[in-house]
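User: Please fill in residues for this 120-position structure.
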């Protein structure tokens, strides 16, 4: 469960507004589900003035991306100080699991990498 805590910390940092909207219980459930590999990308159905499923979808995609980044980071050989950012970005970009993640979420990869390097 060590990864779950790191993933959760990064999600709160990168998507703070969405995290506040859905609350800690939903964030915890999403992180647990993604860590276990149980969550699927959800389709929003219906509609109202506020569609929380869009926010949850952002968090699911973001949490999935954090998990992918963390797994790849831990697999790469470490130099004296840190993993080479360029090599890490290339490995993440070539991972087939990111195909379903929307571009605006993928644009957070540099932020995620910085936080991973501080936490791990």
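Assistant: Residues filled in for all 120 positions:
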């Amino acid at each position: 469960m060590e990864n779950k805590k790191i993933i959760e910390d990064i999600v709160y940092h990168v998507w703070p507004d969405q995290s506040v909207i859905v609350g800690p219980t939903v964030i915890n459930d999403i992180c647990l589900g993604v860590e276990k590999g149980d969550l699927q990308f959800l389709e929003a159905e219906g509609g109202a003035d506020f569609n929380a499923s869009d926010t949850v979808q952002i968090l699911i995609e973001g949490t999935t991306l954090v998990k992918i980044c963390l797994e790849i980071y831990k697999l790469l050989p470490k130099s004296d100080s840190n993993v080479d950012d360029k090599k890490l970005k290339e490995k993440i970009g070539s991972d087939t699991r990111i195909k379903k993640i929307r571009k605006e979420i993928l644009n957070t990869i540099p932020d995620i990498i910085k936080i991973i390097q501080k936490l791990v």
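For context: Residues 22 and 56 are 7 Å apart (CA to CA).
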